[in-house]
């Protein structure tokens, strides 16, 4: 994918939502075929970059509109309703823009924000295999003269094939945090840097076209101006984790809404069960019950998504430990509700549609496959634990990027 130059400049949030709705309608047309054939959405991601939607969080002093999380969340939900794979691709783009906002120098922010306003896209290289836990990075960043050298292998690098810059999280050799743990930093590496390779080896049953493949870094040199501290983000109250999680929740909520809409269409085409004694399947009282339950789940998830986004916006306006905690708890609640709604709606779809809905040619399994795959991000069982502790004893949740 060739980098986009001179992307459209969005000037307000209403324009952003309109652009997202327009792109979503376009992306939905061939979403099923792309999933079935594992066709990567190169043209669609280029259109997304050209639209200006990748620059919504750029601060006003750098030429952006500094959009509210409520607006950005709705943009992601709209995109996910049309094609969840496309919606997931810019997730890390926005996450690493937030790293720059929190930890970048004024020169770093000026440089990278100008790149994004022109249409540049970031992707992540975070997760690794073989480490004891997911928060351990074997990938190293070693200072050598005026530069750093990064070595390692990353997996699940969503969207890396489409990106102009790869944000690589690595252990900063020889440095420790205030708690004595190895310090981490993020190296922003050009997609074409010598020693960096990306392999499209993602074979997930769902989210098939996210290009979440393997990134290998073999003695990749990075100028110091492109390295940003990461560990300090979590030494003070922040909405970093809540922002990352609410965008994941928006993707799940979008899947849930799309699955419910498809379930309704399938029910209208289905034959009624003979014992129901009705002429149309939509008049079957048992199917009505299933549809009502699924609808409640989707409506609740959407409402909690909006509430959590508003909490994050409030915390960003007045950041304290208290407001940051509320934002994290509310984002966790939205993530749990959205995950449940996406799995329920994508399963009920088959109950409402009957046997014909299970045909391979219809490819309706993509809703459940996308939901099941994406909801494996950041286990909701731990979010429920933190919500419960906060509810019972006002126990403050930990500071990390997953809450």
Automatic annotation (TrEMBL):
Gene Ontology CC: cytoplasm
**What InterPro entries has UniProt attached to this entry?**
Acyl-CoA_DH_C (IPR013107), Acyl-CoA_Oxase/DH_mid-dom (IPR006091), Acyl-CoA_Oxase/DH_mid-dom_sf (IPR046373), AcylCo_DH-like_C (IPR036250), AcylCoA_DH/ox_N (IPR013786), AcylCoA_DH/ox_N_sf (IPR037069), AcylCoA_DH/oxidase_NM_dom_sf (IPR009100), S04_starv_induced_SfnB (IPR023922)
Q: Which reaction does it catalyse?
A: dibenzothiophene + 2 FMNH2 + 2 O2 = dibenzothiophene 5,5-dioxide + 2 FMN + 2 H2O + 2 H(+); dibenzothiophene + FMNH2 + O2 = dibenzothiophene 5-oxide + FMN + H2O + H(+); dibenzothiophene 5-oxide + FMNH2 + O2 = dibenzothiophene 5,5-dioxide + FMN + H2O + H(+)
- Which Pfam families does this one have? Acyl-CoA_dh_2, Acyl-CoA_dh_M, Acyl-CoA_dh_N
**What positions does the domain Acyl-CoA dehydrogenase C-terminal occupy?**
246-378
Where is each Acyl-CoA oxidase/dehydrogenase middle domain found?
Answer: 128-220
Q: Where found?
A: Cytoplasm
Pathway info: Sulfur metabolism; dibenzothiophene degradation
**Biological process terms in GO annotation:** L-leucine catabolic process
Which Enzyme Commission numbers does its entry carry?
1.14.14.21
Looking at the record, the residues that make up the Acyl-CoA dehydrogenase/oxidase N-terminal domain are 12-119
For this UniProt record, give its keywords in alphabetical order, as a comma-separated list: Flavoprotein, FMN, Monooxygenase, Nucleotide-binding, Oxidoreductase
A Gene Ontology MF term for this entry? flavin adenine dinucleotide binding
Please name the NCBIfam families in this protein's record.
sulfur_SfnB
What family is this? Belongs to the DszC flavin monooxygenase family.
Designated name of the protein: Dibenzothiophene monooxygenase
